[in-house]
Specification:
14 helices, 7 strands, single chain, alpha/beta, globular, 3-stranded parallel beta sheet, 338 residues
């Protein structure tokens, strides 16, 4: 999406903007990525859950969040065992069917299947396919240094694909863009928590998810335009139960399911697309940006089953999430394979 495309949204009614965002989210031809490539840009696809997108952004690449899709894995089925989860298969299907094209792909060892995704992907495509090894022991004193060096290793490969050298100032500018994005998403979730009748769970989900499909500056502009309109929406409060949705850390529930829940409940907090909201505070702009990004992943982050951190017991963190959002109940979903 280029600025000229965004300009066509200015002045539109809020409901029209939300409708177009949903259409963009559900379009499996990914027009924002296609336009980026047609303008000569490079695309880095990264698998759920968390990836430091600032690294790709600083190299002038478009980070694309690969989160599977509601499509049939026609070609991908032959690349995986029949027992493996659909997010792996449909993610690969998106690339095999050329619905979306990448110049680099990065996955993570969040599970046994995802650990092997890089090798399977690499056998089917000519571009580099990397594994980002996030620390298995988040409580080790060496974890931050290890992760900082892992980010540096990945940055070296990203520079080759992006065709440009990335310096610390480049990284700081990208961190600033993403700090702004995280602040806007916190504002969206504050509206969702404090006045949930102003934004439904599916609307908030779409507004969050489109950030993984477009340049983050454009996402910032859309959120900055939409959030004030949400806050002044004339919706009336209804008698609905306040709910926390937990378990959407990896494979995302269908949008229709989120919409169905929203019809009868206020979803006041969740862990949907948690990777886009993983870091809870601004990342410092002074000093070594890679070190600060690594430190933020470990020290200023949310909790998730993909990070084993003894300081973040998931049952305690879930209870805190329920209390802080003043929820009446929680829906706990379980990944059926993991």
């Amino acid at each position: 999406m280029n600025p000229r495309t965004f300009e066509t949204w200015r002045g539109k009614a809020l409901d029209d903007v939300l409708y177009e965002c949903r259409e963009l989210f559900e379009d499996m031809s990914f027009p924002t990525v296609r336009r980026w490539r047609e303008s000569g840009g490079k695309v880095l696809g990264h698998f759920q859950v968390y990836f430091p997108e600032e690294i790709a952004h600083a190299a002038g690449m478009l980070p694309f969040k690969v989160r599977g899709a509601t499509i049939e894995a026609v070609q991908a089925d032959s690349r995986f065992g029949s027992y493996l989860c659909s997010i792996l298969k449909t993610s690969l299907e998106l690339a095999l069917s050329k619905r979306v094209e990448f110049d680099m792909f990065v996955t993570h060892p969040i599970c046994d299947a995802a650990r092997n995704l890089g090798a399977i992907w690499g056998r089917n495509f000519p571009y580099p396919c990397q594994i980002l090894y996030l620390p298995q022991n988040a409580n080790s004193p060496a974890a931050v240094t290890y992760l900082r060096n892992e980010y540096a290793r990945l940055l070296h490969d990203v520079e080759k694909i992006g065709g440009r050298r990335v310096n610390e100032d480049d990284l700081r500018r990208s961190v600033a863009v993403y700090n702004r994005n995280r602040a806007l998403l916190r504002e969206l979730y504050a509206i969702k928590r404090d006045t949930p009748w102003l934004v439904s769970a599916d609307e908030a989900y779409v507004l969050t998810a489109i950030g993984g499909l477009m340049p983050r500056q454009e996402h910032n502009e859309i959120l900055a335009a939409v959030l004030p309109q949400l806050a002044t929406r004339p919706n009336k409060k209804q008698d609905k139960i306040r709910l926390v949705f937990e378990g959407g850390f990896c494979e995302q529930p269908p949008l229709d399911l989120i919409r169905a829940i929203a019809r009868s409940c206020y979803v006041v907090d969740d862990d949907l697309l948690i990777g886009l909201r993983w870091i809870l505070e601004d990342v410092p702009l002074d000093g070594d940006p890679l070190f600060h990004l690594a430190s933020a992943y470990l020290e200023k982050s949310s909790y998730s089953p993909v990070q084993h951190d003894l300081r973040k017991p998931k049952e305690k963190m879930l209870i805190e999430r329920i209390r802080n959002s003043r929820a009446d109940a929680a829906i706990l979903t379980a990944a059926k394979m993991c």
